[in-house]
Amino acid sequence: MLLEIRRVLKTGGILYITVPFMFRIHASPDDYFRATPSWWEETLNSVGFSRVELSPLVWGRHTTAAEICNFSGFLPKVVIKEWAYFKDILYSRLMFRGVDDYDGPRGERICAVSLGWFISSTK
Which tens digit of pLDDT belongs to each residue from 82-93? Predict the structure, then answer.
């Protein structure tokens, strides 16, 4: 499929891909393959794309935990979801004041548990 996308994309055109990684759309027990960032970079380069950029789609630890648990609990799902979002926003505002992105060891830990990826690459 990537070869066909490359074939029909104009020279200099940009490919955009979003990839869920931990969402429940992966059917159990038939989830045989989850492409990692290094797989995407290597594969896109091998079929002729260049300038592969991967950006993690990250949420905070509370939202990630709630997502993994399917927002279940004794409260309505919408309350659990909004409460998790609120805690993550508050935490990030307090811990990352004046920082636009996550970098360094903390950023590596956060990006290692991303719930998805946004990928762009140039033909």
Answer: 999 999 889 888
